[in-house]
Amino acid sequence: MLELLWLVLAFPLAGFLVLLTLGRTMPKRGVALVGVGSIGLAAGTTFAIAASYLTSPPPGGVFEETLWTWWHVEGFAPSIGLHLDALSLTFILVVTWVGFLIHLYSAEFMADDEDYARYFTYMNLFVTSMLALVLADNLVFLLLGWEGVGLCSYLLIGFWYKDPANVHAARKAFVVTRIGDVALTVGIFLLFQWLGTLHIEDMLARAGTVWPIGSGAAVAAAMLLLGGAMGKSAQVPLQTWLPDAMAGPTPVSALIHAATMVTAGVYLIARTHTIFELAPAAMRVVAVTGMVTLLLSGFAALGQRDIKRILAYSTISQIGYMVLGLGVGAWAGAVFHFMTHAFFKALLFLGAGIIIHCLYHEHDIYQMGGLRKQLPVTFWTFLAGSAALAGFPLVTSGFYSKDLILTQAFTSPYGSWWLWAGGLLGVFLTGLYIFRGVFVAFFGEPQRELERHPGWLLRIPVIVLGIFAVGAGFLETPDILGGVKVLSNFLGQALPAMAGHASTGTEIGLETAAGLASLLGIGVAAALFLGQRTLVHRAMETTIGRRVQRLWAAGWGFDWVYDRLLARPYAWLANTNRDDVVDGAVMATRLVTIGLNRGLSVTQTGRVRFYAAGMAAGAVVVLLIVVLS
Amino acid sequence: MVPDVVDPALVLSVLMFAVGLIGLLARRDIVFMLMSIEIMLNAGGLAFVAAGARWQQPDGQVMFLFILAMAAAEVAVGLALVLRLHRLFGTVDADAADTMRG
User: Fold this and answer.
1) Which residues of B touch A605 (CB under 8 A)?
2) Which residues of chain B make contact with A603, given a CB cutoff of 8 A?
3) Which CATH number fits domain B6-90: 2.10.109.10, 3.40.630.30, 1.10.287.3510, 3.40.50.720?
């Protein structure tokens, strides 16, 4: 059964190829059938493979399938090979199933779009690339998937290319993530140079024997891999592309945020965890990056009016939690949070998509209001997703996954109390910003009539995701709440066990603190944004209030700083160098050549006597040289 | 290592070569230029003969026979060129045929 693993990759790829070649001539129903069906088949295959993996596990929990050798040069032979273990199985399950639900949703959401076929072509390629990234058994094949994901995000963010702003956002996403990609590529080169192989398993095994803990090479490699992860996973300081990436269709945002793209960095770090464990300094940087990111974007989310931008900053913040988890050695915790986040963030985006779809493409939450009665299914599922995102205690998945990371941040030898405190403040902020959106958009009086009502294809995915957003948390619960360890036991085959161990007393304290922070955030949101919002209005009348709001709305002004620091000097340089200094040197050789040509062609008089004189003079010179030397 | 007494035949040969070269460069009439080339060839031949006599070797005279044969061939080609020049330009002035100047 496991031999059919290649089908998981082949179905979306086949869907992409069919749509690419025949998509234009197919009717919309046919396009939807191929586009959604290919991902559905991949999801079904993944499910069968997961069942087979669990009932009869392969030896060592690892199944490898080499399809063919990509190229073979001087003993360097990267293969198109698939690597299945507990980590990649978890990822492909989430990618295919969440991807399938998003595709199903898109079939209705994009029904009126003239470029229906192009949309599904890109989406299928997107899922193919992500699956290649996750299943790759060597870093070169992984990089192929990595770049494919980047390409598809560019194509889909700029999907409505007739608006220059969308194209600009797409270009920004591509360029900013490219900075990280350069770091990753250099890292791969160095790893090959130092370890002699890029096959991930062999490489990690060799790294463990060659490098002592804390060696400079391990730190350099880990930092470069982290650089790649920062770009793709939108961590500070490369997070600026993600809020702008909202220019694409809403299901695309759901796919980018939940199933593909931004979690690639988390996967990369988890996959190469051995290198990070050999470099405690890099682990610390990873943890701090995660904490800074989750706090900055948590505050920035408070300043947004656009519902999709709120969710975008929330994604950055939640990926920050995953990175924090990786940085403190909570490997299973980070993957757990990836999984629950995929469910509830896909749910939130699809819910936001329904609102936008049914409300004349309105993005501003202050133009919504009262949607609770108009869109009941969307309201209840969005509420479930928001509660999971905020980590509402005991009943939501987000509580358990986030709590696992926070507990580890406090107790693990890599962690410390201030990392935990930052994470806890983040929990409070999360509850505050997401319920601000919920209270403003869904409560109060309806502002206007709906344009249309969502069909079943829009509602089924959000209902399914709603169930998962609540239920997925019970795969892994703390000791005091049942102590279910399904996921960490499963991931224990591929990732090291989590380092931190808390006594029962500490654990109760940490659980309570996280739960209270979440409830406090929701409570403050209710106090501020339910009803007349007098306190908020009064705060906005002060200068400080307005300034803070503007700073957060601009995402702490990173764009402004980058614009002044990088974009403008570069544009100035390019403008100054309009005539191209380097090209001038090249053109000078042309002028010199022309001059020499003129000079020499003067000697071509066409007179025989002149040539004879030249020969005689030359003979004299040669004779003189021979005689005198 | 200049020998004490230079062979007078060699001196004559050098003088003849100089006369030929000057004639070649100074004259514009292509017939005279051909004749100057003949003088230069003969100067070379004389030098070979003188050298052969000096070392008591037959090689110098053999070389002179080669030069003789070559000079005959050269005159055949040269005179054909003179005829073509006269037909094309209506003159035997070598400088008039400078249409291939750069």
Assistant:
1) 98, 101-102
2) 102
3) 1.10.287.3510
